[in-house]
Design a protein that fits this description.
The chain is α+β, with helices and mostly antiparallel strands. It has helices at about 10-45, 55, 120-125, 130-135, 140-155, 160-175, 180-190, 195-215, 235-245, 250-255, 395-405; strands spanning about 80, 80-85, 225-230, 265-270, 275-280, 285-290, 300-305, 310, 315-330, 330-335, 340, 355-360, 370-375, 385, 390, 410-415. The chain has three domains: about 10-40; about 55-100 and about 225-415, Beta Barrel (L,D-transpeptidase catalytic domain-like); about 120-215, no CATH class.
């Protein structure tokens, strides 16, 4: 018989065990509550598309002005062709807080050209589409090459002098050599022998080719303008883009990713920049180019329709995309009326993109206040309606913003 003094289940012992179990459960419940609170907080802040705190560490002292939009050194902001008063603030996009650019609805892929063509068809081939989204809707390289081949096939007799060149490029495309065809056509495009219709046809063909070669996720073998980049642990999109001299927003677009969703060990497509632009005032057109790093040949990429200064006031000459002058959703003061427009104001005449330009030759040095921007008047594209700047439709200026690199991309404006 066990005495009460010898039992391990005395009243005092039982009270101690019950108290200890209660403390244990309280600790477990409190821990679960803390974990749940952390998870809810993370979900709320990660779903809005902003960079994580780890991505924020990416903004080190070596970050270039392409990944941020700082105020100009002289504390003035020059917009719309003239010097304006300092705005109260500017929105500062960077790889740490990417501002999503809504993609326009993609139309159906362009239909192949007619088999039986007339003289009118050959001399007036279809113009390139106004927005890049319409071109990139062409699914896959084979489809893009077929569309380009169709356009060339319809232009083979546009001019006897150029028929052989058109035919050779067409053969390269059909042989599965779009990179070689692009180089040949880009060289032909810069020649003085083309008439207006032929040059337009070549631009259309190259636009269709580059929709696959440059702006799709596919990496075509032996294309010197693109490369595959394997993401290392701790790498972020901003430094990767700087390495190849392109804005990080372009890599988001090409790879269909978000900067804060980049995974170590994944392989992404990169474009070897910087891009350069040539604005033809008489044609109301902006042509985009890349330089072949091997041959140094300038390769045509695609075009955008533009508007420019009233009374032909946009200065011609050479410009550089100025550091710290790329702005998203900037406020603006009309220098003629003094009317101020806040950021996010739908009535802001310059739209939601500003790319400041700095003159670099004898015709443009000393000029200030000129740039490339959007517009709330899309009907003004193709006309002389601005105060001297180059303007584009909103979808197009968003693309140009994502192509041009601060401090390296050049813009040549010619008559």
């Amino acid at each position: 018989m066990v005495l009460a003094s010898q039992s391990s289940r005395t009243p005092g012992r039982r009270r101690y065990m019950v108290s200890r179990r209660r403390r244990k459960w309280r600790t477990l419940i409190a821990g679960a509550a803390v974990i749940g609170l952390i998870w809810v907080t993370y979900s709320l802040f990660s779903d809005d598309g902003d960079q994580t705190s780890a991505e924020a560490a990416n903004s080190d002292s070596s970050q270039s002005a392409d990944e941020k939009t700082s105020a100009p050194d002289d504390d003035r902001v020059v917009l719309a062709g003239v010097l304006s008063s300092p705005p109260p603030r500017t929105l500062t996009p960077s790889p740490t807080r990417p501002i999503p650019i809504p993609e326009p609805a993609e139309p159906a892929a362009p239909a192949p050209g007619p088999t039986n063509t007339t003289t009118s068809d050959l001399l007036n081939p279809p113009r390139p589409v106004a927005t890049l989204a319409a071109v990139t809707s062409t699914p896959g390289a084979p489809a893009g090459a077929r569309a380009a081949s169709d356009v060339l096939a319809n232009a083979l007799t546009a001019s006897p002098d150029q028929a052989a060149e058109f035919r050779k490029a067409n053969e390269l495309i059909e042989a599965g050599q779009p990179v070689e065809a692009r180089a040949r056509l880009s060289k032909l495009l810069e020649s003085e022998a083309l008439n207006t219709a032929e040059a337009r046809t070549i631009r259309d063909v190259l636009t269709r080719l580059n929709a696959d070669l440059i702006f799709s996720k596919r990496i075509t073998p032996n294309d010197p303008l693109v490369a595959a980049h394997k993401v290392k642990p701790g790498q972020f999109l901003g430094p990767i883009a700087r390495q190849y001299k392109t804005p990080w927003q372009l890599l988001e677009r090409v790879n269909h990713i978000k900067a804060n969703r980049l995974r170590a060990g994944s392989t992404i497509k990169v474009v070897r920049g910087p891009f350069h632009a040539v604005v033809d005032k008489s044609e109301y057109r902006m042509d985009m180019y890349l330089d072949d790093p091997n041959t140094k040949q300038r390769i045509y990429i695609r075009s955008f329709e533009v508007g420019h200064g009233e009374n032909n006031s946009t200065p011609t000459g050479a410009w550089l995309v100025e550091r710290g002058r790329k702005l998203i959703n900037p406020p603006w003061t009309n220098p003629r009326t003094g009317e101020f427009y806040n950021a996010d104001d739908p009535k802001n005449p310059i739209g939601d993109r500003w790319i400041g330009l700095k003159g670099t030759d004898s015709d443009t040095q000393g000029l200030s206040g000129y740039g490339i921007h959007g517009t709330i008047e899309p009907d003004s594209i193709g006309k002389q309606k601005s105060m001297g700047c180059v303007r584009l439709r909103d979808d197009d200026v968003a693309w140009v913003y994502d192509l041009l690199y601060e401090g390296l991309s050049t813009v040549v404006i010619k008559r």
